[in-house]
Amino acid sequence: MRFHPSGHKTIYIALLLFAAASTGFLLLDMPILKSILLILSIVVLIFCLQFFRYPSRELSGAQAGEIYAPADGKVVVIEKVHEKKHFDEERTQVSIFMSPTNVHVNWTPCSGKVVKADLIDGQYLFAINPKSSELNEHSEIIIDHHGDHIYTKQIAGVMARRILCDIEAGQELNYSDEIGFIKFGSRMDLLLPLDYEVLVNIGDITAGNKTLVARKKA
Known about the structure:
Layout: H1 8-27, H2 31-51, E1 66-68, E2 73-83, E3 89-98, E4 105-107, E5 112-120, H3 132-135, E6 138-145, E7 148-156, E8 163-165, E9 172-173, E10 178-182, E11 186-192, E12 196-198, E13 205-206, E14 212-216
Antiparallel strand pairs: 1-14, 2-3, 2-13, 3-11, 4-10, 5-6, 5-9, 6-7, 7-11, 8-10, 12-14
Helix pairs in contact: 1-2
């Protein structure tokens, strides 16, 4: 199993804690305490290993006008919203909530040229909260996909205190390219032009770089 580079330091710390707890288990003459410490260190290590897992995913056969899930998770919002900051128009918002047990690698939802890639400071509300889209720390990524501006956000949550956005304006993206990583529970929003048909429903489980979320109407 591969682990994401952003998690290497955290995993090393978890391994050190496990090693210390294992040593304490052998040396301490306090059965209950040393058992508790060992169990806690094992839980922390397993959590870190599963959280930073880094699957290799290649998308083949994608076509222009197709939008794929940028993350693993659960669809929690599908609604029309008035996007004021960049476009001043109605768009369809599709929000995917990532729990701490999901893979937290983020992929581009489409191919195209990056028009904007900025990190915006903010709060740390629960990522499932609708207000988190505007109030929480988040990235703003706009991709020119064959003339359509596809807008996506990486949104921090209560546990997610670090957003990694690994792309920049002017960069060309292809399907399957990674755009970043969010540490711990978080959310991703897609704000799509209204002439894109949403192909998922609220409650659906998405697989990043695999699930077809929307397609441009003919």
